[in-house]
């Protein structure tokens, strides 16, 4: 089981493609540049099973609709951001880019609780990790020892909380209570910047020290 990082879209958001030896894959946070992502997948003969969204800010969803239609796959998103995919005002595209075109149809599956999520041959543990946005979720994949955290936890940082629905105290609490409880050698696949590990963030993240 492997994953690769593909920076996409206006903010070069990290899109992740997790795939197995049978060339089956899941796509996490396809933020834009749909044609490039499609070509990337086809060049590697990968067969996507689904799109998983850690949250629905514009920079994480820009390629959702084209990739969904091209590969005829379902989209998973938290229930609290159900309307964000369809509304550039809610997903931030209109506010930050002046662009009312970054949107898609609603997700096919709305997650409303924590627990196991099975998508084809892939099994994730879903954690509700709000604070950056109300419907932020993290996908922990034990087989690859990776948590796909979106904009919750970064290498040496945490997600911004000054956007609508953000809450700084809540973000720190869910990082401490949920993500830092994962095995210390877990890789953290962040929404922006380099990947890190739980151990590294416990040891040196200035936002978490002393919490």
From TrEMBL:
Its cofactor is Zn(2+). Keywords: Hydrolase, Metal-binding, Zinc. Residues 12-192 form the Metallo-beta-lactamase domain. One of its GO terms (molecular function) is hydrolase activity. SUPFAM superfamilies: Metallo-hydrolase/oxidoreductase (SSF56281). The keyword Metal-binding applies. InterPro entries: MBL_Glyoxalase_II (IPR051453), Metallo-B-lactamas (IPR001279), RibonucZ/Hydroxyglut_hydro (IPR036866). The keyword Signal does not apply. PANTHER family: HYDROXYACYLGLUTATHIONE HYDROLASE GLOC. This is MBL fold metallo-hydrolase. It comes from Salibacterium salarium.
